[in-house]
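FORM 7B: Structural annotation worksheet

SECTION A. Query
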Amino acid sequence: MLPALNEALNVADVVRSALATLDDTCLEGEVLVVDDGSHDGTATAALLVGDARVRVLRHDLNRGYGAALRTGLEAARCGHVFFSDADRQFDLGQLALLESWADGHEIVVGYRETRRDPLTRRINAWAWNRLVDHLFHLGVRDIDCAFKLFDRRVFEVVPLRSVGAFINTEILARARAAGFRIREVPVQHRPRTAGVATGANPRVVMRAFADLARLRGELNVVAEKPRLTSV
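SECTION B. Predicted structure
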């Protein structure tokens, strides 16, 4: 699944990469693009790839990253759901690495070995990860890394309410509270070469903090560390 906002310059290449990954790994599946209210032709660019395995869902208005993920998760039809961003910053061929751990873990998440983002974004991400780990004790070093694989059954148990960038934290915090097993593995990260990142938008940040406070109160997390393994 590929949530996308104004990624017309990137999305076709990412969709082709996803299709090639399915072919190379002999996996049966589909590529689901969720266009979150783009105004640059993102949905059209994805459809022009011209493969029957590609489905495009579109929000008429921008609803937020979490809303796009929730739309995709509700529409997903396979036993496992993988999601990444449509900005060409990840090599989707690394999905095979996540798949290799899927038998023993309901959730396999990537962490960026070397994050190829501007310094300000890296500092903000470091602070956010420390805060999230302090509050929810997830033990995940890169909570917002957009390279995650889930057993579809996780979302039959875990309710999701966030519509913004907090969705990654909400999924893992609720899944951890429900007893699902998480594995974290390193993945490579590339610099963004086209399009504009929106994660540092003040409205996005404020919404994430509001969602964090709500979930913290709801879960009433106990202060004990999870059983999480890394490589």
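SECTION C. Observations
The chain has one domain: 2-230. Helices lie at 11-25, 42-47, 65-75, 95-99, 119-136, 154-157, 167-177, 202-219.

SECTION D. Sign-off
Analyst initials: ____
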